[in-house]
UniProtKB/TrEMBL annotation:
Residues 315-346 form a coiled coil. This is PNPLA domain-containing protein. Residues 5-175 form the PNPLA domain. Pfam families: Patatin (PF01734). Keywords: Coiled coil, Hydrolase, Lipid degradation, Lipid metabolism. InterPro entries: Acyl_Trfase/lysoPLipase, NTE, PNPLA_dom.
Amino acid sequence: MKTAFVFSGGASLGSVEVGMLKAIVEHGITPDLVLGTSVGSLNGAFYAHNPTMEGVEILESIWKQLRARDVFTPSPLTPVKNIATFGQYLISPKNLRTLITENLPYEKIEEAQIPLYIVSADIKTGDEIVFDKGLLKEAIMASAGIPGVFPPQHMGSNVLVDGGMVNNAPISTAVKLGAERVVVFPIGFPYTPDQDPKNLGEILIPAFLYLLNRQLSADYHIYKDKVELIIIPPPENIEVGPHDFSKSEQLISRAYNRTKLWLSKGGFEDNIDEFIRPCDVHSSQLNLRESIEPDKEKSAMDRIRENVPQIAHLHENIENRKKIISENLENKKNALKKHIKKEKHD
């Protein structure tokens, strides 16, 4: 049976895929082809080159050290300059390009040990563009080019952006390539039906994740009876923003443990009806409600009271980070003094 591994997009939540992959590889499951969109293209490219437990552990170590600045080049001038000069992006891709270059030890897509397919989108036409050969780094830059955040990649007649805009979990592409069993590595979602959002972040983050998961729910209905479709269950109630890379180790651990438990219960079978599908407008369920007078908006003071613990936690993290930086600087100063003293003595 021809098996495809499908890695979804989701920025920092790509760490979830690494935890899942570690458990799947330990279980001895291997694919015949690998597909990836956005950050999934990076994970997929790394795994397709070294599809071993050693390779997965190297990928895990990369993610554990990753921070937002390694992906999003910090510069207040870039967005100002590009807005003022009718530019097409806000953040320089320099650090993302460096990250890809330093961590992927091959240059051509066709050099991968397992056939690799990288999904991007043409912003002019809305077409899905799938790279199966050529320059690996440029394909990933196109696949991960969040519109408006990173510059689009101009390749021939195509203007390419993040593949998640058209096919965030490219199940359909895997089927077109002949896959009979499709294993999806989803990013998860903040499924918290009993918890009201308390701030802007808790509105925007779920909105972003639901949007990315929307097509996965649609593809479930289209392909569940056409191929063996296996969706690895992600950790529940993810409360990490897609821009926050500092929680990668935590997400890897949660995804690994969840996948191990799922496998121990015979999960690597057709589990599709057990997967919680947000935004599933194609299900038989119809949620009819009566429109009533909404609750009044909370006062500014109430909002502050709700969010003060989070602000305090953020302040504590900042202070701890400042302390670490200060200690590192002090250690470097002491080392430099010792070196100068030794040079004078010599």
